[in-house]
Request: fold
Amino acid sequence: MLRSPVARLARAASRHTPRHHLRAISTTGSRGLATPTDKMVGASSQWANPFPHDQFHVGSENGFLPRQDPLAVLPQEYEAMEDLLDRMPLKMADGSAGLLATGAFGDAVEKDLPEYDISKVSDPQLLSALYRDLTFVASGYLLEPCDINYRNTGGYGLGRQTLPRNIAVPLTEVAKKIGQRPFMEYALSYALYNYKRVDPSKPLDYDNLELIRSFSRHEAEHGFILVHVAMVRNSGGLVDASLAALDAAAQGNRPAFNAAMDKMRETYQVVNNVMETMWGRSAPEAYLSYRTFIMGTRAQPMFPNGVIYEGVSDEPFQMRGESGANDSMVPLGDNLLELTGNMPVNPLTEVLRDFRTYRPRNHQQFLTYVQQRASAVGIREFAMGDSTSAALYLANLDQIRAFRHRHWNFTKHYILKRTKHPVATGGSPIVTWLPNQLDAVLQQMLVTEAGIDREALPPQYQTMVEEISLRAEAQQRVLTREVARLTIERGAQAAKVDPSKPQDGYATSA
Ligand code: HEM
Reply:
C-alpha cells in the first residue's frame, strides 16, 4: 500500500496549524456536537422505493432491515424443507450431532427434499422466507465436503460442483421473483432475514433476538449474526439523516445541514458501539467452525469452475459468498460523503463496486440515489464551505474510519490469526481488500482536515478535529506497515484480486 502524494501534502499542511491552543475534549461521548432541531429529520420527497412490495424497503423506521419481521416458520406444505433445516446444523438443539456433523446432509437433500413448485407463490414475505431457506440448503449442500475437509485437514478441498435440481430449480425461480441471485446473501438470507423476536411485543434489542436458521447452532454463530442485526436496527437514523443532509445542502440551509450531519455522526457512533460487542458475543476462536458455509462459488479454489445448477443452465454460475460487505450502512456513508468516487482506481475498488450489486434491490437503488444526489448537490463542497460543517463532515468520515478500523481488527483476530486461506467469504483478497478502503478513508480525512480553518471553529470542535487528525495519521502509518508485512508473509495470492469475470448472468437492478 503506497502513501499518496495527496496524503503527504495533507499532513504537511496540517502541521502548520497551531495545536497548542486546543483544549482536550473527548470526541467519544454521545453528546451532540451541533444543536439538532426537530425539523432536521424527515424523509426527502425525492426518494421512493422502486419495488414497494419487497420485504426490504428502505425507510426511516426499519432502515435497512425488512419492514416486517422475517417469516420464521414455513407453511405446512414446505414441512420437508423445514424438517431438513432443523436436522441440518452441526449441533442439534439437544446437543447431539446434526446432519452436517456426520456428513449426511447431501444424501438427505437428495432423498428428502421435494422439487417445490414456486410458480404460484406471490406473497412477498413467503417468497423471502423460501429464498432464505433454499439458500441455506444450497450452501449446506455445496460446502458440506469442504467443512468435513477443513475439520480433518485444515484445508477446504473441493465443494460439490453441481446443485441438484430439487434445490436449483425452485431457488432460481424464487430468486428471479424477488430480483436476486440464486445464492446465499447477507441481507436476504444469512443475517438480516434470519432473526425473530423472543418476545414479539418487545423491540429488536440484542437480548430479544433469536436465530431462525443456523449452520452450526454454536453460540458464536448466534452472536455473529445477531450483532449484525442489532447494529442495522439503528440504520433508520442513518437513512433519515442522510436524506435530511441532502435536502439541506440542496436548499443551502446551513443549520439544518449541520444538524443532519451531527445526527448522522451520532447514529454511526451508536452502530459502532454495538459493533464493539462482537468480541464478547461471538468468540474469535469459534469463527472458522461455521464460516465454511458462508463461502461463495466465485474466486474460491473450492469451486474452480463455479457450480452447475441442474435443470437451470448448462453453464456454471459463480456467485460471491455471504459477507458483511453487502451491508448498506457503510456504503451509505461512502456515497453521502462522496468517498466512493474518491476510492483509488484499482482492481480492489472494482471488487467493492461488484459487492454493491449483492443486496436487496431497494437497497441498491437507494444507495445509487444517494450517490448521485450527493454528487449533484456537491455535499463535500457544501460542507467545506463552512468550518463547522467541515468539522462535522470530518467527524462522519471518522465514524466510517472507526467502523473499518475495528473491522480490520476483527479480520486479524477472527481470520488471519487462524487460517492461511487467501480469500474471504465474499471472494476478496484477505490481506489487501479491507485496507484498500480503510486507507481511502484515512486519506480523505487527512485532505479534509487540512482544508479546515481551525481558528474559525469553536473550541470543542478544534479539539475534535485535532484528535481525529492525529488518530488518522497514526493509523495510516500502522496500516501501511501491516499490509506490507502480511503481503510478504502470505505471498501474492493473499493480496491479489481474482481476475475472473463473473459468469452469473444475474447482475441486478442498480
Ligand atoms: C467477526 C466479525 C467479522 C469478521 C471476521 C468480518 C470479516 C469480513 C471480511 C473478511 C470482509 C471482506 C469482504 C469479503 O467477505 O470478501 C468483510 C467486509 C465487510 N464487512 Fe465484515 N466481518 C465481521 C463483522 C462485520 C459486522 C458486524 C459488520 C456490520 C455490518 C460487517 C460489515 C462489513 C462491511 C461493511 C464490509 C465491507 C468493508 C468495506 O467496505 O471496506 N462485518 N468482513
Summary: Residues 1-43, 506-510 have pLDDT under 50 and may be disordered. The first strand starts at residue 162 and ends at 163. The beta strands are 162-163, 195-197, 209-211, 308-309. Residues 5-18+73-494 form a domain with the Methane Monooxygenase Hydroxylase; Chain G, domain 1 fold (CATH 1.20.58.480).
